[in-house]
Amino acid sequence: MSNYQDFEDRHIGPSASDESEMLGVLGYSDIKKFIADVVPENIHIEKQLKDVLDGAKSEVEVIAELREIASQNEVFTSLIGGGYYGTITPPVIKRNVLENPAWYTAYTPYQPEISQGRLEALFAFQTVICDMTALALSNASMLDEGTAAAEAMTLARRSSRASDDAVFLIEEHVHPQTKAVVATRAKPLGITVVEVDSGHVARDGYDGEFFGLLLQYPDTTGEVCDYAKVTEFAHSKGALVIAATDLLALTLLKAPGEWGADIAVGSAQRFGIPMGFGGPHAGFMAVRTGLERSLPGRLVGQSVDAHGNPAFRLALQTREQHIRRDKATSNICTAQVLLANMSAFYAMWHGPKGLQQIATRIHGFASRLQKASSSRNGIVFDTVTVDVKNADVIHAAAKAKRINFGRVSDTEVRISFDETTTEKTFADVLEILGLSDAAATPIAVSVLRSSKYLQHPVFNTYFSETSMLRYLRTLADRDLALDRTMIPLGSCTMKLNATTEMEAVTWPEFASLHPFAPVEQTRGSRLLIDQLSKWLVEITGYDAVSLQPNAGSQGEFAGLLAIRNYHDSRGDQARNICLIPSSAHGTNAASAVMAGMKVVVIECDEAGNVSVDDLKAKIAEHGSALAALMVTYPSTHGVFESAISEICGLVHDAGGQVYVDGANLNALVGTAQPGKFGADVSHLNLHKTFCIPHGGGGPGVGPVISKAHLAPFLPNHPMDALAGPATGPGPISAAPFGSASILPISWAYIRLMGGEGLTHATEVAILNANYMAHRLKDAYPILYTGNKGLVAHECILDVREITKVSGVTVDDIAKRLMDFGFHAPTMSFPVAGTLMIEPTESEDVLEMNRFIDAMIAIRGEIQEIIDGKIAVEESALRHAPHTIGAIAGTNWERSYPRERGAFPATLTGLIPGELIGAKGKYWPTTGRIDGAYGDRNLVCSCPPIEAFA
């Protein structure tokens, strides 16, 4: 009998009776026997998770336990700076975006017609970055400031005509974590990084050849430098200049584009995003005209829909840069969308005048301290470096007042003011330092900003809470997220992000910690990280884990880097070949190249499995040069390959290492362990299997997890000796523990489910996928199946023959599904002309049947085209999606009635025979979008105010 208070029964959609019915449809009476026929016997684990993980806890118990852990953190006033600052999240944004499932459960906007809300917000974010940096084009956010700087370095390398021997210059006063991330990324690419003093370079030049120069503006000491001369020199040598900058400072300081920077990078954290012990935050990158085709990450552009109305969509090749595989310029395939949206709304909430007021107040504190302390700094914005007799004494006095200063040396402290600083805090700072207050001085004219910014109406309208609330609701209504409907995307695992799991994210004890706060103040977060790490090790069968990578792509890079450094440590520098199946995720090949490897493709056989014969041939061909095999398991084709252990053995026998992409771990938890069936290292997508929401295409966490022999080569961090092994390669992300503030989500999920619940979730995920495949196979052939005709946790519908005989494409089906109120499955990946479906364990039978009925109804519409009853060009499929404007228009000259366009079929809902349109009809707000038009007429930020004259 079900206990209706059990979280497991809330998380898993089908009831026990539903499971029995689905098993019966598949010809089984017992779920264990069913799983035994799906998961190969040679990898199925005998030791159950319930034997190594604690039993499930109730939601009340888990919140109480999280409260206890959170209480072990001490939230001081952190004036540490270094790229992380206290900020105030406007409550209207906190409640209606950060804590709103309409925003945080949305997926990447690959289907733009049902993503117009978040695309408009991202478009505004790009406008903020372009305006503040005075550069032509910005992407839709990066992972953090450190990785953005590393991406800028590789962009400069690609864009430069310099020789291969040219080096990359970093100004010595760049934030230390940024320096370290850049160095980590540079080494496997063979790029030499040299630290310089910009003043010396501006005065004396630089003798060697260099292709890029990275500057911090303001720098990490607090100094605001005039970089005009060093920029002029760099350009004279054909090098690109990159400014790592602060958006709030740019409300007062001359913009990087105005003093000659080619690229600007940074973090939008202080635009209303909590520090969160390091993340997630929206990094950014903006470039001057001429570099747009090299811009990594995502780019939102404006196009038009089928009715000629303006509409947003992802633009250019940057939409899927990683699909270029080993030719990709970056492995980043996501963005920090949720945080970028929040930053854009913060800019709207305050407007240009409000932002300037905040910045002016912060500068006032810094200027007063600079003058009072006779600081060595010349021009400052928010940070002052102060000479003291004994820094330890000062830090102790600050600690007594629950304040953290930045640690510099025995005779220096650094103090950064922020939006949360009060006169009381400032008075405490003066008292700690034994100083008397002094009058502020204005910013020097030489670096003062005179140009305007954020003049577009969107940044000058929503100043009352009523207007902002309604604007946020209007945008959310233009999107289709998991709070409305199933999102059956294969390879993406759009499952429940439970409210209880989300609750702790905004608690001050987790949200308000500086990533470089003293260890004793962060014991709670470190305990949670340690516990989560141990659980992930138990679940996967590995030995060690790093939670630092803040995206799956970064976890891939970290894992391959561990393999690279392992081989190097054994004198096997010649091992540089990475074997990757043709079905692999596009990021895999890009990550391998970033780790200094060469990609060799392994073919798949007719069943969609890795071809063992081709693998043997490639191993024989490359011999002692083999570094690794990178394989996804279950395969990207949605099947369990029974030869996986043999495949791992062949690679190991040849001296290589095996990387198992953990994207499909939702089919393995409790059933098989990569660390036991032959893998050496994996990344895990906590934003897939372990319930961190996708947030519109980010944030994510991509831990790297390995066997013991690779553990010494997992990421570490120069600012935190406890964040990784001393023998590690350096940091993969800017913060020691990556996106630490969202780790309580996965911690809570595992605690709520327990070992038995996690195993049951996997079993139901596989059951749901097979039920859907069985129900749909007569309408759409299933491309690949494994043992006994069964699939793993996802299945691929083969539409290619249907397209041949009808002209109906996967795009037509995807757009038509919007009329039914559904998001499309994954289109044309991993096989062009197919649809990949993953229902997850969270979808109940009612919703799955609703989707199945929609797909069958669409197949009926396709049959009418095949039978010659209607031409494909005149069909509802080709005109989908149908907006309310199109349906209500005066002229209707289509070959099907309006009702069929808007309400495409009678589906069984809660009430038998209920028309889909009778209640809760979802209306796409834009018609089918013309992508080619958008690329020909690239518009990626709001037009200037003059355009409205």
Structure description:
The protein is of the alpha/beta class and 949 residues long. The chain has a domain at 77-466 and 923-949: 3-Layer(aba) Sandwich (Aspartate Aminotransferase, domain 2), CATH 3.40.640.10. Helices cover 37% and strands 12% of the residues. The protein contains 31 helices and 24 strands. The strands form five sheets. A seven-stranded mixed sheet has the order 2-8-7-6-5-3-4, sandwiched between helices. α3 crosses α24 and α10 (198-204) crosses α11 (228-236). The chain is globular, with a radius of gyration of 28 Å. It starts with 6 loop residues before the first helix and ends in a 13-residue tail after the last helix. 60% of the residues are buried. Mean pLDDT is 94; it is low at 907-913. Pfam families: GcvP2_C (PF21478), GDC-P (PF02347). It catalyses: N(6)-[(R)-lipoyl]-L-lysyl-[glycine-cleavage complex H protein] + glycine + H(+) = N(6)-[(R)-S(8)-aminomethyldihydrolipoyl]-L-lysyl-[glycine-cleavage complex H protein] + CO2. One of its GO terms (biological process) is glycine decarboxylation via glycine cleavage system. The glycine cleavage system is composed of four proteins: P, T, L and H. Its EC number is 1.4.4.2.
